Amino acid sequence: MAARMEDLLPVEYFHVVFTLPTPIADIAYQNKSAVYGLLFKASAQTLLTIAADPKHLGARIGMTSVLHTWGSAMTHHPHVHVIVAGGGLSPDGTRWAACRPGFFLPVKVLSRLFRRLFLEGLLMLHQAGKLAFFGNLSELADPDTFAAHLVPLRKANWVVYAKPPFGGPAAVLAYLSRYTHRVAISNHRLVSADAGTVAFRWKDYRIKRGDRMKLMRLPVAEFIRRFLIHVLPSGFHRIRHSGFLANGIRRDRIEKIRRLIDTGREPDQTTGEDGRTDPDEHDLCRACPRCGGVMRIVETFARGQPPKSRAPPWEDAA
Questions:
Q1: Which of 38, 62, 207, 307 would be 245's cystine partner, CB 3.0–4.6 Å?
Q2: Which residues form the signal peptide (predicted)?
Q3: Which range of residues forms the domain containing residue 242?
Q4: Is residue 137 part of a domain?
């Protein structure tokens, strides 16, 4: 969290979700490392390619991708959440190119390119002998059968969902702190457990209105099976950074982008009358490393000196 705080920029952030269709998810279950890796690669390349197109943003963007493999009922539902800054470096690297307020990239265009890149990559994995098939999928080991299996998927709609923009850098940190290290189910959803069954709450997304929370009871063995579906291969990284946030160039790129953003702003948008940054904007980028909530400065004192306040502000308020 501390490292991500250093990467945040004073710009709008967007949240894009790439989801694999069920026939591909079945293949991914038997080839986790290869197919999940391809999911990361295809989704990142999709965003980088469309954003670089002058018809859209015309810029080199940066993103953080987080893999989730579960639905609310702990079924297998592989998808990638992508947190991306609303803009990027111009092709010549001399300015920050911001996207339109509230809009990043068209999801239909993203969906089509994501579908093509992923299916091409999946076919290459099969041709290289990097996919294995078992049980009712064993016939897909044959190249012709596998190619035929992919034909209807080339015409189907692949789900790429752009959520509303985050409410600022602090909201990005709040999201990352909650979701980057989640497992298939959290403790607060567990209702009861005994030798025979486990009961937990789940959200039925098929219900469009009203209360979508329901109670599910599963035999213990089935509950354990669903939980273990989401154990990743040893050494697999479920959080990855791309574009100008790639590990090898991130620090230099972030410093350069901050300079470009500061240079491109109007004076009354970035500084007060004394030339210093508006304290409200400065505070917005400070987030609690534990919960992600916004932190406010209540007092500043020199090193080695005690604070003037005798009690924390929340005790005074009480």
A1: 62
A2: none
A3: 2-184+233-258
A4: yes
